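Entry type: protein chain
Record version: 2
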Amino acid sequence: MRMRPLTLARPKHLLPVAGKPIIQRVVETIKSLGITDLLVIVGYRKDVIHSFLKDGSQFGVSITYVEQEKPLGLGHAIGLAEPYIGDTFIAMCGDNLYRTDLRGIITKHIKRKDTATLLVEEVQDPWRYGVIKTVVDGRVLELVEKPEHPPSNKIITGFYVFEPEIFDAIKCTPPSKRGEIEITDAIHRLATEGFQVYAEPLLGWRKDIGYPWDLLEANEVYLKDLTNQDVHPKVSGPARIGNETTIKDGARINGPIIIGEHCKIGSSELRPYTTIGDNVEISDGVIIENSIVMDGVFIDEGTEIKHSIIGENSRIGKAVRTETALPTPDFIKFMVQGRIVSSYRKQIGAIIADGIKVDSNNILRPGEIIPALDSIYAII
């Protein structure tokens, strides 16, 4: 629900970050650790995930799939892996991206002979996560899942190193009030029963892709990977341009930027930290800045798109403008599932669903979400 309207047509894990689906970046991270045997727990739209990842060979890994038939929580999902696991293993949430020394965390886990090692981060909204309640010299003694009044701002991220003892703890963990088997509760059981559970602080960057604006931050981080070796004669700065993409004379393009295949770029201005998908057509006089434009989008003349996400196959009319900041220097807030959520961003443009037509001369407010019409209920 939190990622709507972008997830109406696809699982969140297939949303693009700098030209690659989130799940592909997770798989590549695991591969970089030297781990090539992956167990992927699938549920919603499992066919789409399977169709994309296949057997993993195109990414240099081997993938086995296990279906979680009902969304019974992360603890339950990890428990499904027991028949396949006999030694130390890592568990990663498929919507979390990392820039930190994960290999070092695994090494410490093995050296200390931990039962569980957790990557921990200090955040501004700990009530969304499992929270560390008591820790002494790095050893975790108590945890609590999504507390209304968090005892600390130290949360468990989606990266874990476990020994097989976690499976017995999961079996002994009753469902929470949400009806789910919480991995936080299972780890709490390990800690209170005297098993060695340690927390390692996040020393780099990590993003839980929980809201649409998280995609914009992740997109910017990964675009910084482009180097000066990624050059194009019509682009200033690092860029990656797809095959059979044409760029009209007079276009001003400043990287880092990614433009997909079979695109037509008019005499427009494309600014840094922008990702353009495949088969996109951009007319003359368009300005795009710090945005994600998905496959098959058409943008007409004189339109300005900033700090925005445009879903697949949408058509944006002439002279449309996305405003990005409030009149006051405040963070832009959203109402999500009955709760006010801060984006902790002072600039957000529009979030536009797949297949939307935005008529010419529209001005879109900061943070405006334009859903697909078939996602809106009517009561008569």
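Comment: The longest helix spans residues 212-223.
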